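Exercise 7. Given the encoded structure of a 500-residue chain, write a plausible sequence.
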């Protein structure tokens, strides 16, 4: 390396060397700095504080950061390069990755299998003994594609408009390969891997498999490449003993990915006589309603609010995030992950905070802030702006509208649904009472079940199944495009308001 520059990262206590002129975006992501807007200077998610050295102030930083912040050394790392030795203060993030240890019914096989949930933010992989179903090893990691943006449409934009498609494919394949290598260290002397099964949303499915994501960038957001994808390990550059097949499960349609198909497997929705609802709350809220006779599914653009992105003080559920808010003695009381000073608020805390503000009359059922203030304090210095509240209304309105339309299509009411499974990390941690208070969920408390990582569980179950069975399930799941429904916009507007 010529002309190395030393970066000292606090409070991590690490020092790294990079080439002169290296963009900080390229080196800080592995150390916990996130880039929710894809490094375009449109948010403050990648803030760092300059302790020593020089980082020039650019126009995007002047727009996003106050004069006081800039004078205190705060910078947007996506706008900076390492042109001198630097000492930087980073927010210390601790990824919260939802693994899965739930039991399930299976027919014993032979050898070992690997199940991988390729999430937009995080990736989790498990090594299973196929004779007993025992999980032998687990590996978790951040999805390295996140440096191109926190949400899937940022990844699509990077791939289609910025020529980053091959780079995005390379990043996720290398990360999963590294994780598999870690899993196999527990097997001696030579593992007998029968197959690797992966699940993920439609964009992750396409990017991992090297498929064109351009059809997902414009209406009607349908791709001709939703089916089961098969590779030999060596085809994608993986050196796994025995060269086992690698299968990425199929996507039912549009933005309903194989992670949702895995959720259907995990909940047994497709085998149940009673009606069941599966809801995955994320940037794209995926909803499934059905039973053994009929299954309808849809996706709705909920926006990134449930994951903390798109909110002025939003962040992932990690150290420093307000994760729970309750009303005590007529005021908001907050719990912060890591028991440190609050740095932001994550999705579950946001839902709690809005529910509490409704109870205290701080905001109205129309979402407007009471009085003359432009923001509402949650836990100083963290507050929510009017725009933040509106983002939550848009997200919850989209989910609630999607549920109403699918129930109508199936010809049932919410009381006819036996169980409502909330999938994924947000669904696992969100307070269902708060979700009901803001109108995100209109089901009874006794119907709602936090189901955990159903995507990963479904991938594990698929290790024991003929791959054609998952292809058949994909065909059984009928995809509904909500934008084609003439009543969607009216229902969406109705659901944006908060219950009285």
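Solution.
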């Amino acid at each position: 390396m010529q002309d190395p520059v030393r970066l000292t990262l606090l409070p991590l206590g690490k020092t790294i060397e990079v080439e002169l002129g290296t963009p900080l975006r390229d080196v800080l992501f592995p150390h916990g700095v996130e880039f929710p807007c894809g490094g375009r200077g449109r948010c403050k998610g990648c803030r760092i504080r300059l302790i020593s050295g020089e980082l020039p102030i650019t126009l995007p930083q002047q727009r996003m950061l106050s004069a006081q912040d800039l004078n205190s050394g705060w910078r947007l790392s996506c706008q900076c390069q390492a042109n001198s030795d630097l000492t930087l203060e980073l927010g210390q993030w601790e990824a919260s990755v939802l693994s899965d240890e739930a039991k399930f019914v299976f027919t014993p096989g032979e050898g070992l299998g690997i199940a991988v949930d390729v999430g937009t933010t995080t990736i989790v992989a498990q090594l299973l003994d196929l004779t007993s179903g025992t999980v032998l090893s687990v590996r978790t990691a951040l999805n390295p594609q996140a440096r191109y943006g926190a949400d899937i449409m940022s990844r699509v934009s990077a791939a289609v408009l910025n020529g980053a498609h091959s780079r995005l494919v390379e990043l996720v394949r290398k990360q999963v390969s590294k994780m598999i290598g870690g899993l196999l260290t527990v097997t001696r002397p030579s593992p007998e891997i029968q197959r690797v099964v992966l699940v993920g949303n439609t964009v992750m499915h396409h990017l991992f498999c090297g498929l064109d994501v351009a059809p997902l960038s414009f209406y009607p957001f349908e791709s001709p490449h939703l089916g089961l994808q098969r590779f030999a390990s060596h085809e994608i550059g993986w050196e796994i003993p025995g060269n086992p097949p690698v299968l990425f499960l199929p996507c039912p349609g549009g933005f309903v990915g194989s992670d949702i198909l895995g959720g259907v497997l995990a909940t047994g929705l497709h085998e149940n006589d009673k009606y069941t609802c599966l809801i995955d709350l994320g940037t794209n809220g995926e909803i499934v309603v059905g039973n053994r006779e009929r299954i309808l599914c849809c996706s709705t653009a909920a926006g990134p609010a449930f994951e903390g992105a798109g909110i002025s003080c939003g962040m992932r559920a990690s150290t420093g995030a307000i994760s729970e808010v309750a009303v005590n003695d007529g005021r908001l009381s907050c719990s912060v992950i890591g028991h440190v000073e609050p740095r932001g608020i994550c999705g579950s805390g946001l839902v709690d905070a809005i529910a509490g503000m409704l109870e205290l009359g701080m905001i109205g059922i129309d979402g407007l802030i009471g009085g003359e203030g432009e923001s509402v304090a949650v836990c100083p210095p963290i507050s929510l702006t009017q725009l933040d509240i509106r983002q939550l209304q848009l997200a919850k309105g989209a989910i609630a509208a999607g549920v109403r339309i699918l129930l109508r299509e199936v010809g049932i009411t919410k009381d006819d649904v036996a169980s409502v499974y909330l999938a994924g990390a947000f669904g696992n941690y969100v307070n269902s009472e708060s979700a009901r208070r803001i109108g995100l969920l209109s089901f009874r408390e006794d119907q709602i079940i936090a189901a955990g990582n159903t995507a990963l569980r479904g991938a594990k179950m698929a290790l024991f199944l003929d791959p054609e069975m998952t292809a058949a399930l994909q065909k059984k799941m009928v995809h509904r495009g909500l934008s084609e429904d003439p009543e969607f916009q009216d229902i969406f507007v109705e659901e944006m308001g908060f219950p009285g």
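Remark. The domain at 4-89 is CATH 3.10.20.30 (Ubiquitin-like (UB roll)). Students should compare their own answers with the one above.
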